[in-house]
Design brief:
Distance between the termini: 55 Å
Helix content: 10-25%
Order of helices and strands: EHEEEEHEHEEEEE
Number of domains: 2
Strand order of the largest sheet: 10-9-8-7-11
Largest sheet: 5 strands, antiparallel
Amino acid sequence: MQGSPWHVLHVLSNHEKRVAQHLDARSVEHYLPFYAERVKWTDRTVVTERPLFSGYVFARVRRQSKIAVISIPGVLRLLGDEEWNMVSAEELEKIRAGLSSGLLLRPHPNVTVGTRVRVRDGIFGGVEGVVTDLRHQCRVAISLFAVRQCFSVEVSLDSLQVLERTVSIPALNQAPAMGY
């Protein structure tokens, strides 16, 4: 099956390692990429391994073993029944090579222009806005209700929390949908 695309197993959050152990026991080829992260506990700082894609494990599943894989505790569903929603071997090989060469691969929120966000920290901590530009940093438009005007601020993507709703950019000129 070398070179064939990978299915994606959608698993319960924080069950990725356990699912990988079950796949190992069933001799199913799988890949679970990890990154190292420093976590500050109350009494010390530790380095822990976290899945690069939280809630997902990649597996090469033969047609006859799909039922056995879906029945693994913690597996919610098997993605990738069609070619367009499977992960190519080349994509996973690049991720593997990047991690093994020491590149700092980290999970990243899917932020696009029009995404509603909340600034986590800094002077504007807690303020909600809409992403208007993505370059070196992320430009967020914030509305000031009283004067019905907006201003933008550039913040790092790390200090943003993605909210559920997305807004089209022309909506910025209408009634305020975000702000203080």
